[in-house]
Amino acid sequence: MRTSEGKITKKDLRGLFLRSLPMEASFSYESMMSMAYAYCMKPIITKLYDDPEKQKDAMQRHIEFFNCTSACTPFILGASAAMEEQNAMDPQYDTGAINQVKSDLMGPLASLGDTIFWGVLRMAAAGIGISLALQGSYLGPVLFVLLFNVPNFLFRYFGAVLGYEKGPSLIRELSQSGVVERLTWALNILGLVIIGGMTAFMVRVQTPLTIAGVSVQAGLDHVLPGLAALLFTLLLYWLMKKNVSSNWLIAGCLLLGVAAGMCGILA
């Protein structure tokens, strides 16, 4: 979408990237992230339009409803910047297309972004960080922050550049080819595998009980190693699906563990 005579520079795109970092700091249930989106676009609009009325019209376009994974938003911002640039140079440009493109990109990018950042990347970073923290290493929280945020920052910066240069045509091509759906499906599977590995490695539920001289724990491990931990994790998942507060679940696990340990039920 970029034109050779465009006014927008790499410095402007870096500005989009930087302004997108606190994207969720301005949030409402009426229009979600629209105010933050307009905040990101403000320097671009001021640069492209000299007429204050045109600036107002452009800002009005970008305070309409908007909601997407914040890490993916710079791609849409880049596309909006390119379209605003075309509108500034072409009096006949259809401004309705600007918001239409935003609406078209929100869904696919939200699905992909939530899967990548909140599903896979967060779980993987947490798994590595927690495993190190359990061993007493101070690198645990440091690595968690780095492993989650470095890809996040890179995705934002290059997303702004790619969105400006390629615009919605790239997402449209990927969606039509089915790449987005297949990638989302594969990443969901990967996220489940990571959660399964974390459950087996980090959840410890063992009992010293014996029945007729036979160890209950040995019997469970004979059926499936880590079966008790798996069943306990599934129970917590079921309770969360029933909208039980995570704070109550944490408190319940703590009290249950102490009580069962004192009674000799859990090791």
Structure description:
By secondary structure, this protein is mostly helical. The protein folds into 2 domains: 10-194, no CATH class; 205-262, no CATH class. The chain has 11 helices and 2 strands, in the order H-H-H-H-H-H-H-H-E-E-H-H-H. It has helices spanning 10-20, 34-48, 52-61, 73-89, 96-134, 139-166, 168-177, 179-202, 216-223, 227-241, 246-262; strands at 210-211, 214-215. Strands 1-2 form a two-stranded antiparallel sheet. A hairpin with a 2-residue loop joins strand 1 (210-211) and strand 2. The protein is elongated. It starts with 9 loop residues before the first helix and ends in a 5-residue tail after the last helix. The model has no long low-confidence stretch (mean pLDDT 85).
